[in-house]
Amino acid sequence: MIVVPILAIGMVVGYSYWMGIPMNVTDPSLEFPITEPDKIERLSAYHTPDWGEPGVFHNGIDLVISENVTIVSPVHGAIISYSESINSYGGNVLFEIDIAINWAWTVNLVLEPGFTDTTNNSLQSSYIDVGIGQQVSPGDELGILLYSENYPHLHYMLVNFGSDVCAYNYSTPTAQDIFNDIATDSNSTILYPYPAPNTILSPVSLIVIGGSAIYLLIVLVVIRSGK
Prior knowledge:
The chain is an alpha+beta fold and about 230 residues long. It is built from 4 helices and 10 strands. The chain is globular.
């Protein structure tokens, strides 16, 4: 039975090594994810209450654009996922790039141009150039977010062990100054107060704890049945 956890650990370590994900949990230091902050007309705050429906909090910062902008990596990391899906609220397509910083932290960059037609969504897709396993550094270009008149924005999200936190709070002083300037110029809010994340109660931790508990229970049952 001891082979199972050894295999699980080996798979995690092997995946991290293969993808180039640092095997640590160090807090990130994020640069700003758009090269043309002058083309950001306003922000929609992290943890805005009743976002889309009652009881839901906004899990990222929306950077709302006035023209096409260049999306860049805000951090050193490895691209672990790229997906295109339909927004259940607005019907527009979401173009999501996920960057693993290390074992604890991930940045999610969701490009939302606001298009609902196939032609423009295909055009937006063609302006994104990323590959799974690609190593990126701050400032590396990931794509162009196209402008539309339907709330075009970058949904900027930081995740710690599966729980969202505010990217502003983990940004460099230079990046925070950019946020502050945009917020001041547009009379926008960057974030609303939110509780500190509880690592033990995070989704990843609960999966690990739950899986370990089930495994130990199975081991106990096997041991007892063997007596």
